[in-house]
C-alpha cells in the first residue's frame, strides 16, 4: 500500500455520526465495531505494484454477509451503489477486477481473512464513497464466492459508524465457503494459521479455517488438497524450504489427528520464501509471509 494524495484531505476530516438504511439480500455473518481505529481505503487502482490508499481514523464498523444468488457481481454492486447514493454518498473511486489491479489490488487492501470473507480474483468490485453532507466514508468490496457472492463493507466516521440494515433475504456462511473458494480460485490462504520466525509449531488453539477445511473435505470425499508452506526471507533458501514443509506437515497432522481428515485427501509441501505475499522488509510483511496455503489438487466433480 502507498498513501495517496488529493482524496486524503477529504477522508481525514472528522465529523458527526451517520446511519445507513440498507436493504441487504442476505444475513450478516460478521460484525466488528471499534470506537477508534485506522482504516486504509483504496483511492485508485494499482500503480507500480502498490495500491494507493488513504487512512481514515475514527469509529469503525466492518460488516460481511453472503448472498446465495444474484444476477452478477456487477448487478449486486449496482444495488448497493444506488442505496448509498440515496443516503447522501458520492462514489469517489470504483473499479472491477483487472481495472483494479487484480491480485496486487486484492492483497493491497484490508480484507477479512478466509473463510470469513472470500475474494474471487477473477470477479470482484470495489468502491470508496464519501457522504456529501457528513464526512463519513465507506468502502465496499463485492465478490463472487462459488455459486454465490460475498460483500464486505467498512464504515468510518462519526460517533456511531454502524449502519442500520434491513435484511431482505437470509443466507448463512458455512464450511461450504472454503470449498467454493477452492473451486473458484484453486487456492485459499489459511490466514489464522500463523508461525513465529523459525518455528513450525502450531498454537494450542482452534483454527477456524482448518475446521472449515476439514468439514469441506468430509462433505466432499472426492476432493484432495495440498498444503503449501511458506516462510519469510530470514536465512538461506534450503533450510527455509525444509521449515516451510515442516509447517505444512504440522497443519496436515492437525487436520488428520485433531479433525479426522483422511490422510489420502491431504498432502504437504514447502517452497520457502519463493512466493511472498508481502514485503520481507517489514515485520508485518514477514508475519504475512509465514503462512500455509491450501491448493485444490483433485476433485470428483
Label the overall shape.
globular
CATH class (first level) name of the largest domain: Alpha Beta
- Let me know the number of strands: 13
The SS-based structural class is: alpha+beta
Query: What portion of residues is helical?
Result: 25-40%
Count of alpha and pi helical runs: 8
Tally of separate domains: 2
By CATH, the architecture of the largest domain is named: 3-Layer(aba) Sandwich
Cα-atom Rg, whole angstroms?
20 Å
For the biggest sheet, the summary is: 7 strands, mixed
| First-residue to last-residue Cα separation | 38 Å
- For the residues shown, what is the average pLDDT? 81
Order of helices and strands: EHEEEHEHHEEEEHEHEHEHE
Beta-strand share of residues:
25-35%
CATH topology of the largest domain: Protein Transport Mog1p, Chain A
As residue ranges, the low-confidence spans are 3-18, 164-174
